[in-house]
Design a protein that fits this description.
By secondary structure, the chain is an alpha/beta fold. The chain folds into 2 domains: about 5-285, 3-Layer(aba) Sandwich (UDP-N-acetylmuramoyl-L-alanine:D-glutamate ligase); about 295-435, Mur ligase, C-terminal domain (Protein-Tyrosine Phosphatase, Chain A). Helix content is about 40%, strand content about 15%. It is built from 15 helices and 17 strands. The strands form 3 sheets. It has an 8-stranded mixed sheet, with helices on both faces. A hairpin with a 2-residue loop joins strand 10 (about 235-240) and strand 11 (about 240-245). Helix 3 crosses helix 10 and helix 4 (about 100-110) crosses helix 5 (about 120-135). The longest helix is centred in the C-terminal third of the chain and has 17 residues, at about 320-335. The chain is globular, with a radius of gyration of 21 Å. It starts with a helix and ends in a 5-residue tail after the last helix.
């Protein structure tokens, strides 16, 4: 048990809803804390449906390679809450310590005085307090949900706003069309601040451009103002400032070419004079747990026969599943192995939309429940969905049990295992593997 767990439990009880998108409570609490959001370093604000964390990871690696101090705020965490807050230091950044985090939470509790506040609002206020108290050159600030009414959207003049690929997700809060969701994401755009739009569906792109025009924002748009592509085993990036010929991103998957491009566009918008070596190192040093993470080390790899692969990804929506399926197909072209998908999902997600991407690709699906207080799909219902799609599926008690079940058949060939469907599932797997994010 972490020393911060009792405080986090109290913060969870301060609002009857887990998610209640609004900004009035946030402004009240920040004012009581002395408005720390007005004393932050340059802020690069990142919204979108998919790729936010990876884009932040590429920016962080690039900026730290350039010798800059970088604060980072992301969510959710996988194993420990501390993962959400990374503070700049001379060693390139560190996760906030329990002692420092506890003191910030104490200050937030005192300032809030028991008033209604959501968990994300309270913890974001604590993060802003910490970021304002520790020197840095830049803060990479990831939106929690949406953009317009997200608790992070209290920054009046960001150095840059980045919007990563948008797809249908969280429709109960953001709207049931790409246009509506895009307008919510575009809420982080600010008049006079640079913006970067990653590759988008046409409907989302049109909505983003309309919102930008309304605010007088001239965004850097993928395919128009900048471009990133794989060519000859390299990443080629181009914009008005010139061409960068870089190593392929360390994070695997073709979709990371798009995320890396958005990161490069944002960095060049805010820091136009970085040395080329910083961009090269940014591609090769970027780390982002549970995003096509190869679990070749740790405890779980020993559960399967030699030659097997275990990949972990927190992808949970249709767009994420498409990217994962493409990555697995590309991997199979290099080294053919039967693919087994270990899958669990929240009730707010569509198992059918996710699993359809693996029809004809996965040899079988092992369905596991999500543990904790999250409302998840009963595994039996997901098995039924998989059957209708034509996927062989069965239930297992958890991911570790699923891996052990695969090891029982000594005659089976080496397998490629992908564990996906939920960041909560990813967190459980990393904890079981004894490889939490650091």
């Amino acid at each position: 048990m972490s020393p911060t767990d009792p405080i986090l439990a109290r913060l969870l009880d301060l609002h009857p809803k887990k998610i209640d998108l609004a900004l009035d409570r946030m402004h009240r609490l920040l004012a009581a804390l002395g408005d720390p959001q007005r004393r932050l370093p340059a802020v690069i604000h990142v919204a979108g449906t998919n790729g936010k964390g990876s884009t932040v990871a590429f920016m962080r690696a690039t900026l730290e390679a350039a010798g800059l101090g970088v604060h980072v705020y992301t969510s959710p965490h996988l194993v420990r809450f501390n993962e959400r807050i990374r503070l700049a230091d001379r060693a390139g950044g560190r996760l906030v310590s329990d002692a420092v985090l506890s003191a910030a939470f104490d200050a937030v509790e005192t300032a809030n005085a028991g008033a209604p506040i959501t968990f994300f609002e309270a913890t974001t206020a604590a993060a802003f307090k910490l970021f304002s108290e520790h020197p840095a050159d830049v803060l990479l600030l990831e939106v929690g949900l949406g953009g317009r009414l997200d608790a992070t959207n209290v920054i009046d003049a960001p150095a840059c706003a980045v919007i990563t690929p948008i797809s249908r997700d969280h429709v109960e809060f953001l709207g049931d069309s790409l246009e509506a969701i895009a307008r919510e994401k575009a809420g982080i755009l600010k008049r006079g601040a640079p913006a970067v739009f990653s590759a988008q569906d046409a409907a989302a792109q049109a909505a983003l451009e309309q919102e930008a025009a309304r605010l007088g924002v001239r965004p850097r748009i993928f395919g128009q103002d900048y471009l990133s592509r794989r060519e000859g085993g390299r990443l080629i990036y181009e914009d008005a400032s010139g061409l960068l010929d870089l190593p392929l991103p360390r994070l695997p998957g073709a979709h990371q070419t798009v995320n890396a491009g958005a990161a490069l566009a944002a960095v060049r918008a805010v820091f136009p004079d970085l040395a080329p070596q910083a961009f090269e190192q940014g591609m090769t040093r970027a780390e982002w747990p549970a995003r096509l993470q190869n679990l070749g080390g740790g405890r779980l790899a020993g559960l399967l026969p030699r030659g097997a692969e275990i990949w972990l990804d927190g992808g949970h929506n249709e767009a994420g599943a498409k990217a994962l399926a493409q990555a697995m197909a590309e991997r199979a072209a290099v080294l053919p192995l039967p693919l087994v998908l270990i899958y669990g999902a929240l009730k707010t997600k569509s198992p059918e939309a996710f699993l359809r991407q693996f029809a004809g690709l996965a040899a079988q699906v092992l369905v596991v429940p999500l543990h904790g207080d999250q409302a998840s799909w009963p595994p039996e219902e997901i098995v039924a969905v998989a059957g209708r799609i034509g996927l062989a599926a069965r239930t297992e008690p958890d991911a570790v049990g699923a891996l052990r079940s695969l090891a029982r058949d000594e005659r089976a060939p080496p397998l490629r295992v992908l564990i996906a469907g939920s960041l909560y599932l990813s967190g459980d797997v990393l904890a079981a593997n004894a490889t939490p994010p650091v």
